[in-house]
Amino acid sequence: MITAVFDTKPYDREALQSVPGSAGLEWRFLEFRLTKDTAPTARGAQAVCVFVNDQVDRPCLEALAAQGVKLVALRCTGFNNVDLAAAKELGLTVTRVPVYSPYAVAEHVLALLLTLNRKVHRAYNRVRELNFSINGLVGFDMRGKTAGIVGTGKIGRIVAEILRGFGMKVLAFDPVPNRDWAAEHGVEYVDSRTLAGASDVISLHVPLTPETKHLIRRETIELMKPGTILINVSRGALIDTTALIEALKLGKLGGVALDVYEEEEGIFFEDLSGQVLQDDELARLLTFPNVLITSHQAFLTREALGDIARTTVANLAALAAGQPFVEGSVLT
Questions:
Q1: Domains in the chain, ordered, with CATH?
Q2: pLDDT for 185-205, tens place per residue?
Q3: By the 8 A CB rule, do 267 and 53 touch?
Q4: Can you say how many angstroms the Cα of residue 129 is from the centroid of all Cα atoms in its chain?
């Protein structure tokens, strides 16, 4: 069975091909993203394997179905880039990776927070230029401060537990609170307005849906205390970028750490070092000394890549053998 793997990076090839049983699958690794225009390159494949920035909309799905593709296997958890209604109508099965190492993403939150707070990135650049001054590098003790966790799924809960280990007070907001867990770990559920106004650090851990798009916008930011640090490792469109830039220009926020960006498609995961960045808002964000951006790498650990590859290969093998897909992975 042939699988066309789009938006492929070296670590994708290595992880997928190292899974036991993957040798029985025929891989077609493609470095470009899947769109309606690149869909014809999947001709002859029974499955396509895609990632977060592939454009799996109705025109793309129609092109895939016309070529005999049966399965769209997402090697990620989020699926906001896939038109599930169209896939179902066209008889295409869509699978995802429902769970991979939540510690990978949670620990990246801490890497971002510690780096931004203690200005490690700025200190690193100074020292490389033999500037050993520490002026302007003052941070704050995390112990005794208040963290707000928006969304208490697996990743959000782990972040909360780690922050409690730093001696922080942790507030949480979730439409479906896990009160037994909160009681066990000393976490307090509050409403979203209370969390926004009381937190020194706010970390987002919710999926992107029509309801959560621009969850952080001008009105939300106005509720935050001056100097709040905002962290987003979930989906870029949870934050209204224009409102974020306005708040940064006004000095409303103490810092912003982003592993995702609202318009990251075609930018993140790519080497644009020899080009002029065409995204004006991202270029503006990069000018702020209190903004730290990584390129959607929170998932990038050996353990997480292994989990993703094993689930993806298992679903591809299931298609080839006519067997059930991995439990919890089927979206259509």
A1: 2-100+301-321 (3.40.50.720), 102-293 (3.40.50.720)
A2: 999 999 999 999 999 999 999
A3: no
A4: 33
